[in-house]
Amino acid sequence: MFPKVPDQHKNGKPLIPNGLGVLYVLFVTVYLFFLYFLGIGSISIGVSAPLTLAVCVLFGGFMGLLDDWLDLKWRYKAFMPLIAALPLIYFAIDMNARTSITLPFIGFVNFGVWYFYLIIPLIVMIVTNTVNMLGGFNGLESVCPAIVLLGLMSISALTSPIYLLMVGPIIFWLILSVLNFKGKIFVGNSGSFAIGMTIAAFAIIADVKLSLLISIIPYIFNSSLILLTVFFTRKKALITFKDNKLVSHHKRSLVTILTFNRPLSERKIVTIISIIVAVFTLLAVIYSFFSIPI
Amino acid sequence: MSKDQSSGLNSFSKMFKVNRSSVIVVSALILILFVAFTVRMLPMRWEIGSGQVHLNEYDPYYQYSITSYMVENGLFSPYTDNWINNQQWYPNGLHMATSLPALPMTAAASYQIYSFFGGTIDLMEFCALLTVALGTLSCLIVYFIGKDFGGRAVGLFAALALALAPSFLQRSSLGFFDTEIPGMIGLLFFVLFFLRSLDPKRSLRTSLIYSIGAALALAYFICGWGAAYYVLGLTSLFVFAVVLLKRYDRRLLISYSATMGIGLLIAIQFPIIGLSYLTSAPVLLVAGVFIVLLLAEFMQHDVLAKNKITIVLAVLIATVSSFATLSYFGYIGNIAGKFIATISPVARASSPLIASVAEHRVTAWANLYTELGICALFFILGIYFILNKPTNRNIFLLIFGATGLYFGASMVRLLVIFAPAFALLMGLGLIGVLKPFMLLLKGTPDTFTKAKRKMSLVNKKYSILGVVLIFVILLTQFAFTPQTGGVPRAYSNAYMPTTVSAAGLPVVPNEQMTQWLDMLTYTSNNLHSTDVVVAWWDYGYWLSVMGDVTTLADNATIDEGQIENLAYIYMSSEDEALRMITEKYGQKNVQYILVYISLYLFEYEDSPTGFYSYPYGLADEGKWAQMARISGGARDRLISEGYMTVDNAWSNESGFGSSDEDSGQWMWNQDGMDSVIYKLMSSTEFAFAENSNGVISATSNEVTLKYLKIEYISGLNASYNPYNDLVPVVGLFKIDWAAYNAAHPTH
Predict the structure, then answer these.
(1) How far apart are CA B521 and CA B730, in angstroms?
(2) Which B residues in the span 168-197 are in contact with A, Cβ-Cβ below 8 Å?
(3) Is residue A148 pLDDT above 80, yes or no?
(4) Cβ within 8 Å of B, A 6-35
(5) Are B721 and B582 in contact (CB under 8 A)?
(6) Predicted-complex ipTM score
(7) What pLDDT does B456 receive?
């Protein structure tokens, strides 16, 4: 059913079914509609939390499909998620969401209305794109987001039943992650954008902004490195595959830093980066646990 | 069967020969039109029980009164008779010949045809239903426009999107008999015919016929809705852009000249439009673009470069000097000022009277999101696709979409103009995205190779998922809309009673709320049509048209000074209010004063069988602050006329009390409690409470009326706790002039 593409980092480049992220999108939509019909997670009368999340995930999946079809240029991909920010802004205003954040070392920052019109679009744009940028290895684009989502869900469970929105999606995504890690499937652009959108949308709906910020530090680091390198040197990160190992000769991304003159297997790279992401997510969980009054 | 008969049958069957796709398309179109019609009929639920269908909001009653006059006296009678309606804007009356003719004429002519064939429903019901019919017709027209743009599928999606577009749905649902309706019909026919007239594949003769069609539509639009300036500006901008993009051809010149020339010629025949229309900025723009077209045509001829330069310079000098002359005589300044006020929300906001009208307000982004929903995505894709294929037709749509979005974002009411542009672009975007999937599903190569990456990413079966995904996105747009809590947004926009059937409250009750209708029936049956009822201008049309009495002001808002006086009458003391009435309007006809309040009922804490009533803020108890500001705005004039003194003058509501810092509740001061509005509201509330046999206790301060007596209170018999704890009550008070004159013998 799914189109097959070669796995570039395996000997013989076997053909692997790609684009299974669409299944995630469809599953999440059905799951969230189900929650909506059961009245679970509907924390507002005027606007529906499950449906808002469903629309965002659908949009993410659709963006991935568009990328597959139209081969979207980066300038479009960078700004398209802004459309998905609209339902989230609507939701946040309707819910009278908290517009402030308490940052470690800096303290309390209140964005006022700027939270709705600037911060939310920025969160959606940055998270979706950075998640999409850290990929290309079996498991990398699926396991790391799963870790972040697990963290965010746990944190939200401390304060409200909104975490229920994430139970189904995480289970489904974990199954895809395992298959992806084992090199059986690729989630494709639709999966990658959809999971990025899931993270951003859930963080806004569940109001776990700080936890999101801490969890995605590795992503932001990776994207910043790539973009700054391209901006200043006009060079992209390159990695060579030889004898089942990957190696690079520059430091233009998180992956190339890890493999700089040090050949590593694909699985090892994914494991190391997953551990880095897990450490930051754990930090976010611990910080939230101690900062939320129970 | 003879040979002739057989060939006749064959040609007959050929005439009706349809393939399967045509059947599907026609069925889908009928279904969409059926949905469009049915959704617009939803307010009927509240009307059907009373046996009378009412119009919605307020302005439609103005349109209805002209229609009624036309039916009785002839289609052109308001203009030929120079009709002044003396039941409005007492004592000067309202000059009805200054009203736009398209809507009332359409309704009156259709009603006469309908009556000729034996139709029996009354005119108001007919007008209410005509709105629905014309709204549905708009969806059909947009189908044909969409079909011209990208085939039948685009047409179908565009029709569906327009059928369920919240802004248009609201303004074309049952009873919304207002100027947007002819505006939309005119706009859509104009777009359809004008773009067809530009089609180079059509013969010149056909092109001219379409130009004439477009001209008629343009004239209809100009005579139907003040927003016609938009279409003039849009067309000029489009033609100018086409010339700049070096896409000029002679057909453009012919179509543009014929359409604009004939259209404007017909429109200015109506006195309300008149010759002055031709000197307005957008029409000057039309003329300017015409000169540009002539130059473009000239450039196409084989003329020496030297002569070309000379003529271009001559035209430029002539144009500049013409504008300089107009400017010298003061035309340009005025025109520019008006034009800027129309297109700039900032300039408009500086006029308090315009800004106080809800439909003139700058669109909150939430309105825009409710309008577009997640299908904004397909709208953007539509723009992307037409940018990749910039034909003349597509350039028009691009400018239509961009300018429509700007105007829609700058004024709530103009979202209606944006609705068809959005529908068309959304249809194009949606079909543009679906097309490759559908091609694969139809059995084109099993894998689809992307040109750039050379990777096969999508195959036939996978494309099913793509289609499903798009379907689910549409489902969240039309069926399970997150922003309306999962309810279809069309439902939340159309499933509400007409304003008068909800007694003026923004609620969706189970049954018709008859408080206002009862009051209007009372005034109609018991008062003379020459009796003047002092009422806040919002209710002016209802009182004059349905209540058959005379009023001081209404939504026509033609005399700001009179509205200021009205506001003063409500905000001053009884003595001062009646003094102004006496001096400005005379005691003879002004006999009544009206107040409308909404009370919130809540239970006693200690006794669940008893209720407190509390003024909720949706009626005059919320509008009085506006009255205080409007009369306060005329403070200098009122001081100079002796109605205010420097000591007791107010500028806004702060002269009548202040908000309690803790509860936010308004605390009236003595001036506030002496004001006419407070006394009327309090007396109405107490009358309501007294009628409840002790079940309800009023929370306002009890007042004593000096010269006003309760004539009739509508809403006293409402069962308690009926509409989400809200009870509307309308109070009519008779002015006791004898008592006033006894206390003020000098008058």
Answers:
(1) 12
(2) none
(3) yes
(4) 18-19, 22-23, 25-26, 29, 33
(5) no
(6) 0.75
(7) 47
Chain B residues with CB-CB distance to A65 below 8 A: 466, 469
What is the identity of the amino acid at B173? Answer: S
DSSP conformational letter for B724: T
Task: Provide the 8-state DSSP code for B421.
Answer: H
Nearest neighbour of B457 by CB, restricted to A3, A61, A90: A3
Q: DSSP assignment of B103-169, as one string?
A: HHHHHHHHHHHHHHTT--S-HHHHHHHHHHHHHHHHHHHHHHHHHHHH-HHHHHHHHHHHHT-HHHH
Sign of CA dihedral B362, B365, B369, B370: negative
CB-CB contact of A250 with A237 (8 Å) = yes
Chain segment A178-212, per-residue pLDDT in tens:
999 998 898 988 899 999 999 999 999 999 988 99
Average pLDDT, chain B: 86
Listed by number, the residues of chain A in 109-138 with a beta carbon closer than 8 Å to a beta carbon of chain B are 117
Closest CA of chain B from A223, distance in Å: 22
H/E stretch holding B583 reads none
Window B:405-444, CB contacts with A under 8 Å: 433, 436
Question: Residue A164 domain-assigned?
Answer: yes
- Output B723 or B728, whichever has higher pLDDT: B728
**Nearest residue of A to residue B481, measured between CA atoms:** A51
The residue behind tokens 């060079």 is: A235
pLDDT attached to residue B16 = 59
Mean pLDDT of A70-76: 75
φ/ψ of B705, rounded to 5, equals -85, 135
pLDDT of residue A97 exceeding 50: yes
Closest CA–CA distance from residue B520 to any residue of chain A (Å): 35
* pLDDT tops 90 at residue B320: no
Helical residues (DSSP H) of chain A, grouped into ranges: 21-38, 49-70, 74-79, 81-94, 114, 120-133, 140-157, 164-181, 188-205, 209-215, 217-233, 254-258, 266-291
Is A290 domain-assigned?
Answer: no
Domain membership of residue A219 (yes or no) is: no
Cβ-based neighbour number of residue B98 at 10 Å: 13
CA–CA separation, B40 vs B35, rounded Å?
A: 8
Q: Do A91 and B482 touch (CB under 8 A)?
A: yes
Domain segments of chain B as ranges? 503-743
Instruction: Please tell me the distance in Å from B466's CA to the nearest CA on chain A.
Output: 7
Domain count, chain A: 1
pLDDT band with cut points at 50, 70 and 90 for residue B333: very low
Within the 83-102 window of chain A, which residues sit less than 8 Å (CB to CB) from chain B? 83-84, 86-87, 89-91, 93-94
pTM of model > 0.90: no
Q: Which of B131 and B414 is assigned the larger pLDDT?
A: B131
Place of tokens 């776990």: A208
A3 touches chain B (CB under 8 A): yes
A3 vs B458: CB contact, 8 Å cut-off?
yes
User: Does residue B347 have a pLDDT over 60?
Assistant: no
Contact A62 B377 (CB under 8 A): yes
* B 336-375: CB under 8 A from A: 365-366, 369, 372, 374
Please determine, for residue B469, whether its predicted confidence score (pLDDT) is greater than 90.
no
pLDDT in tens, B418-462: 999 999 999 999 999 888 777 777 765 544 444 444 444 556 667
Is the N-terminal amide bond of B43 cis, ω within 30° of 0? Answer: no
What does the pLDDT look like over B513-535, one tens digit per residue?
999 999 999 999 999 999 999 99
Residue A116 lies in a domain: yes
Residue of A nearest to B452 (CA): A71
At residue B566 the predicted structure's pLDDT band, cuts being 50, 70 and 90, is very high
| B272 vs A56, residue with greater confidence | A56
Quote the domain boundaries for residue A55.
Answer: 4-208
